[in-house]
Design a protein that fits this description.
Elements (H helix, E strand, L loop, with lengths): L4 E2 L13 H11 L10 H21 L7 E4 L2 H12 L5 E4 L5 H11 L4 E4 L10 H5 L6 E7 L11 H10 L3 E5 L11 H4 L3 E5 L11 E5 L1 H4 L34 H17 L1 H19 L5 E4 L10 E6 L4 H12 L1 E2 L1 E3 L4 H7 L6 E5 L6 H12 L3
Parallel strand pairs: 1-11, 3-4, 3-5, 5-6, 6-7
Antiparallel strand pairs: 2-8, 7-8, 9-10, 10-13, 12-13
Helix pairs in contact: 1-9, 2-9, 3-4, 10-13, 11-13
Amino acid sequence: MEQKIYFDNGSTSWPKAPGVAESMSELLQKGAFNINRGNYEGAYEVEGIVLETREQLARLFHGMDSRHVIFTPGITYSLNYFIKGFLKSGDHVIVSGMEHNAVMRPLTQMTHCGVTYDVAETNTDGSVSAKSVEKLIKDETKAVIVSHASNVCGTILPIKEIGAVCREHDIFFVVDAAQSAGTIPVDMQECGIDFLAFTGHKGLLGPQGVGGFLISERLDKDMTPYIAGGTGSKSDSLEMPDNLPDKYESGTMNLPGIIGLHAALSYIEETGISEIHERKMELTAYFLEKVQKLDGVRIVGKQDTKDRVAVVSLDFLREDNAVVAFELEQECGVMTRVGLHCAPLAHKSLGTYPQGTVRFAFGAGSTKEEIDRCIDGINKYV
């Protein structure tokens, strides 16, 4: 990896936060005990760290309290918990035109069960207005689901304004924070969010295989656990517990992943989201400035750093995007992601379907020197 340049932080962050690998290794070597099952000191110690991680997430996202923080295997699972555990035949949903397949595929499955949806008008820079959402509201509309920041072009959606519309019309508000969690502030209370889905392995700098959601009290009353099974609590009953977080956490949890996430969150709290974000956006601005001087390359979405995260997609107008991405990795060691990024709806909104784009996503550890090497590599193909 010493000769490689990692610009695929939109897929997963690398390197991970300091202490992540060590904390996971220590758990596995010294006592990978199961919580909610083992009645001994080691299990209680692990349970204490899990509770601390819930509290960290509740603070980070301004959730109600740690009980409303639910762990899942990842954000795709989290979104399925809502889409399939809440929506019913006759319900209507509004989504943005920037949604990932983690939303669109389960939602499409639910259309076979009588659920309908509409897509809010989305501009070619990836922006969506609250008004475009509001005008689609019907009597049967139950929820609005939006991606906070696009995984294709980095555009940030106005979740505070959209949340206000949802509150005014008494509609549940669901936010996919895959690209924003740990990168920009997310305040559930201020934005009126009822269901916030997050992943641990991107902006939160934790390991793969752990994510979750935070749920409001009013939504919890209407939502059914999508997965049922053992929780280690109320074991005398064949019904799922109705208390949080047990209601949604069946089976054995990914404790190594949660312990790693705890270390990553501790690093983020100590460093500060604003400092991490500023560093990423400084690099993004530098990259955009360099790319704008190139001929035959189109920046997809916003042309500057306003209302965006550190994700930039390029469309090579005279070259095959896949070939450019391959050659960048082979010749210059630059690792990117090319294609449709599991978001065909977003690419249709951006005008890059079906060819897709080459995506560059920077981390706080990226450097201007790496960007210079990348630009030199791109220059060979344009």
